Amino acid sequence: MTTLVRSVNFSKYSTVARGLGIDPVRMVGYVGLDKTCLLTPDLRVPEASLAEVLEASAKAADSASIGLLVGESWRLSDFGVISLLLQHQPTLRHALIELKRYRHLLSDSVVLDLVEYPTVTVVQLALVTGRANPGRQPVELAIAALLSLCRFQLGPRWKPRSVHFSHPAPTSMQIHQRVFRAQLEFDSEFDGMVLSKDELDQLNPLCDPHMARYAKDYIDLQPRNDCGTVAHDVRRALHVLLPRGRNSIEQVGQNLGVSPRTLQRQLEQVGGNFQSLVNDVRRELATRYLDGQPHSISQIATLLGFAETSVFSRWFSTQFGMPPSRWKKT
């Protein structure tokens, strides 16, 4: 099943590409898309085509941060039909909850989750694309777009405590430092941002509850065109929950707002199985961690929810025909 995103990213890409001396029309044609996607922000286009255009453009312009440049240009209005709702949320917490609830109107691939600690909150972002690695450019675009929402709520001069990327650091971090103005962590265990706890509940003086209700009623009339089934919802949830050791059907059900029994019944209705989905996500994340990041085997075992490294090694050997240590070497 094709993972789709709004074409607003191509609209933003067009301006950035021309500034780098790239012909955006030629680039979208290269991946089989019509130039209409450069002009119309609300089309549904394949996420894989966006990733391919960004990667090809980064190579053509010798700019390793083109995805970040596209994300930097995001404004609140680029969230499309949910922009008015986000604008009138009382706090950033409420805005992120609504963004999570209506993310299907933006992208089939984006997953958001809030992890709260005594003094900080982690806003974790994951892209579920069906590829072993979603790619650096789409991830940096998504985090920069998320930053635009935070700065609308908290002020244009706001900066997070730190910004985390699971991919390696680029040769130059000048653009990253300009965009985020915060501590940067590469080769991290997650993609996202760390905020001070009180910032999550800082009041938005522009909030109008009546306008928020009007926007919500309008949004709820929109057709749901996301990529489809409860199995996809479970996979998306597992991408952010599994590295935190939260991989039970009770924990996933809580994340999705349904009881474990209901979730199991919904999966059975579409021929799905919860443990099979956990296994699929583990396979995807295992190869990603082993191929691209400097994690030890024991760290990867923990990130995949295994209590012991030996159990992870046996599982991996069964799945891939070799132990993880050999895979990592080759």
UniProtKB/TrEMBL annotation:
Q: Which Gene3D superfamilies does the protein's record reference?
A: Homeodomain-like
Q: A Pfam family this protein belongs to?
A: HTH_18
Could you identify this protein by its name?
AraC family transcriptional regulator
**PANTHER family the UniProt entry points to:** HTH-TYPE TRANSCRIPTIONAL REGULATOR GADX
InterPro entries hit by this protein: AraC-type_N, Homeodomain-like_sf, HTH_AraC
Annotated keywords: DNA-binding, Transcription, Transcription regulation
Q: Does the keyword Cell inner membrane apply?
A: no
The HTH araC/xylS-type domain extends over 232-330
Give the superkingdom in one word.
Bacteria
